[in-house]
Amino acid sequence: MKIHEYQAKEILKAHGVPVPKGSVARTPEEARRIAEEIGAKRIVVKAQIHAGGRGKGGGVRIVRAPEEAEKAAKEILGMTLVTPQTGPAGRVVRKVLVEEGVDIKEELYLGVVIDRSKASPVIMASREGGVEIEKVAAEAPEKIIKEWVDPSVGLRPFQANKIGYGLGFEPNLMGPIRTVITGLYKSFYENDCLLAEINPLVLTADGRLIALDAKMNIDDNGLFRHKEVVGLRDLNEEAPLEIEASKYNLSYIKLDGNVGCMVNGAGLAMATMDIIKLSGAEPANFLDVGGGANVEMVKNGFKILMSDPGVKTVLINIFGGILRCDTLAKGVIEAASEVKVNVPVVVRLEGTNVEEGRRLLNSSSLHFTVAMGMKEAAEKVVEALKSAEGIGQSA
Amino acid sequence: MSILVDEKTRVVVQGITGNEGMFHSRQMVEYGTKVVAGVTPGKGGQKIEGIPVFNTVSEAVKKTDANASAIFVPPAFAADAVLEAADAGSSVIVCLTEGIPTLDMVVVRQYLKDRRSHLIGPNTPGIISPGKCKIGVMAGYIHMPGKIGIISRSGTLTYEVVDQLTKKGLGQSTCVGIGGDQIIGLNYVDLLEMFEKDEGTDAVIMIGEIGGTAEEEAAEFIEKKMKKPVVAFIAGLTAPPGRRMGHAGAIIASGKGTAKEKMEALERAGVRVVRNPALVGEEMQAILRKQRA
Predict the structure, then answer these.
(1) What is the 8-class DSSP label of residue B16?
(2) Does A277 contact B at CB distance below 8 Å?
(3) Number of neighbouring beta carbons within 10 Å of residue A88
(4) What CA–CA distance (Å, rounded) separates A195 from A181?
(5) B101:A267 CB<8 A
(6) Looking at CA atoms only, how far is residue A204 from chain B in angstroms?
(7) Closest Cβ–Cβ partner in A116, A320, A373 for B278
(8) DSSP 8-class letter at B240
(9) Is the bond leading into B122 cis (omega within 30 degrees of zero)?
C-alpha cells in the first residue's frame, strides 16, 4: 500500500526525523491559513498524489505570501497532474501539502528497502540526492553506501556512524544524521514497510538535516497488525474496478488492451496475458481469482470484466486442481446469467473433472467457445477479437 | 530418485485441525504420503482421520519420528510455526500459508541460517515426488513419476506445465514450488544444485516470473555448474512496472526485475527460454530427443 508524502512525513516526525513545518490542506482557504501559521518568507505548495515527478508536471509551487499560497492551492487542487510516473491519464489532485521553504545547501538520499537476495532490510545513503537513486545505482554505484540490518539485533549506533562518516560528514553532523537514520529505520520497521525513503534529505545553510520529501510503501501482508496505517489508504488513488475487485479478495489490475482475461493463479494469469500478446492482441487486465477460487469469486471476477468498457473479448483460463472444473463452469454460467454478456467469450478448462466442466458449458444456453489448451485458447480469442472489430468497423 | 522428499518422508501437519489443514491432510494421505502427526496447540490428544494430534512439534517429532513439516497456519502465526518446526529439527519445512508479513520472513531466514532445515515457501503449492510423497495442495493425479525436475514460483502455472509433460509421457522426479513471496526459503540455486546431483533427474524446468533477481542468480549458477539441460519460462513479459501481480514478490520495482532481463540472463547461460507457455513440454521433449539421438 502506498501512502502520501504528508502522511509519510507525519510518521517520520513522530520518530524524531526533522521535517519542514507545515500541514495538509484540502481547500485554498485552508492552504492560506496554514501558510499564515507557518509565517515563513517562503512557502511551498505541493500536490499530494501517489506518484513522483510532481514538480515537472507543475504540481509544486514556491510562493512568498499566504495569499499567494491560496492562489497556488486554487490552481493545483482539482488539476489533473501528469508526471512521468502517472501515465498519460494523470491523477486528479485533491490535497496539497503547505510547508515552509528551506535554504538548501546540499541534497542527499536516504532510504530503507528489503534486499530480497540477502533477506534483510538494507539502508542506502548517498550524497547524490534529489535524483532517482536507481539512476545513481546504474551510473555510479560507488556513490551509494549500503548497510544491512540484522533484525535480531536491530539497527546499531555504529551502523549509523558508518553511514555518516561514509558520507564524509564532519563530526558535528554525526548527532543529526544518527537521529535521521534511526528515525527512518524505526518508521520502516515499526510500520511493516517495504520501502521508506527520504529523497532529498537536505542539509540546510544553517547546518540542519531536514526530510524535504518522503515516500513509504507498506507491506499489505503486515496491515493486519497496523489498524492506524490502514486508515491512510486513499481510495482516490486507486482505479475503481481495482477497488471493487479488492472487496472480493480478487487480484485485479487494469491494463490498456481489449482482451479481458480471468485466470486462477497469479503465474498462470501473467502467462495468459503473455500468450495473448504473443498471439497478436493486448490484454485488458490481470485477474487472478486465486489458485483455489470458488463459484462466488469466479462470478464476481466475471462481472468485473464485463463492466470494463475496454473489454471486447474474454478469455477464461482455468486449471482446476483441488478445485474442480465443474464448480468453475457453474460459476461462469451463473455469472453470465446475471450480467449481460455482449462480447465473445473463450473458455479453456483443464484439470480435475474437466469433462463434466466442458459438458456443462456446452449444454448451457450461453455462447462460449470452448478451447483445448492455452495455445488454442489464445488463438481463438484473438480470432474472435478480429471478427468483433470487423463488425464494429462495418457498422 | 528424487530430491528432498520420498517414501521415507514422515510428515507432521501444523494446523491440522483447521479446515485447510484437515482437507489437505486427507488428500496427502490418499496420495500415499506418510502423515504421521498433526499439531495444534491446545488440541493435543485428539485424533484427526486416525492421525494423532500433539500440542507442540517437538512432542510430535519425539513420539512419531516425523522428519518433515507441512504448515497450514494463518499468516499472523505462520512465521512462528516455521521457527517451531526448525527448532524441532524438521529437515524439510513446507509453508503453504499466503500473506505472511515480509519482515516476519526476514526473522525466519535469519533463524534458519545456522540450522539444517530446508524451508520451502511460503506461499507455495508445496513439493511432490510423484508416486512417493506429496506435501502440499497440488492435485496429485496430474503428475507422473519420471526424470524431469521442476522448480517454480507459481502454482497453477506449474500444474499447466506438469500436465503438458505428463501428456507427453514425460514424468517428473520432484516438482518444487518455491513460493511467490519476496522472501522465501530454498531458491532456484539451492534446488538446481540438488537436481544436478540427483541421479533420478535428467533435466530441469524453471518457471520464473517478474520481481527480484533469483532467476539471474540461477543463470549464473547454471552457466558455471550445471551440465543437465534446463528449460525456462518466465511469466510477466506484459506486466506493467510498479504493480504487484497477484504474488507479493511479482513486482517490477524501480525498473528492475523485468521478464526481459531474466530471459536474457538465462539465455546467455545456455538455458532454452520458451516464450510461449503452452510449448514448455514440447520444448523439453525436443531437447531430450536430441540428447538421446
Answers:
(1) T
(2) yes
(3) 6
(4) 14
(5) no
(6) 28
(7) A373
(8) P
(9) yes
For residue A222, pLDDT over 50 is answered with yes
Average pLDDT over residues B145-155: 97
The x, y and z cell numbers of residue B265, run together, are 540472463
Buried b (16+ CB within 10 A) or exposed e, B192-219: bebbbebebbbbbbbbbbbbbbbbbbbb
Contact A119 B155 (CB under 8 A): no
DSSP letter at B244 equals B
Q: Is A179 on the interface with B (CB under 8 A)?
A: no
Amino acid code (one letter) for B73? V
As a whole number of angstroms, the distance between CA A23 and CA A3 comes to: 15
Per-residue pLDDT, A394 = 43
Distance from CA of B19 to the nearest CA of A (A): 13
User: What are B81's three cell numbers?
Assistant: 510455526
3-class DSSP assignment, residue A106? strand
ipTM field: 0.95
Identify the H or E element spanning B273: strand B272-273
- What does each C-alpha distance from B167 to A130, B175, B180, B201, B287 come to in angstroms? 56, 16, 26, 19, 17
Query: Which cell goes with A21?
Result: 513545518
pTM of the model: 0.94
**Chain B neighbors of A289, CB-CB under 8 A:** none
Give the active site residue among A6, A109, A185, A252: A109
Q: Say if the Cβ atoms of B156 and A276 lie within 8 Å.
A: no
pLDDT in tens, B185-212: 999 999 999 999 999 999 999 999 999 9
- Measured in angstroms, the CA of A288 and the nearest CA of chain B are apart by 7
CA distance B182 to A194: 10
Helices (H), chain A: 5-14, 28-38, 66-76, 133-139, 157-166, 174-190, 227-230, 240-247, 266-278, 295-306, 325-338, 354-363, 373-394
Residue of A nearest to B216 (CA): A117
The residue of chain B with its CA nearest to that of A152 is B107
- Could you tell me the CA-to-CA distances from B39 to A12, A192, B12, B22, B254 in Å, in that order? 42, 29, 7, 11, 42
Q: What per-residue confidence (pLDDT) applies to B1?
A: 82
A138 contact partners, CB below 8 Å, separation of at least 6:
none
The verdict on whether B118 is a catalytic residue reads no
Nearest C-alpha neighbor of B120 from the set B85, B95, B99, B86: B95
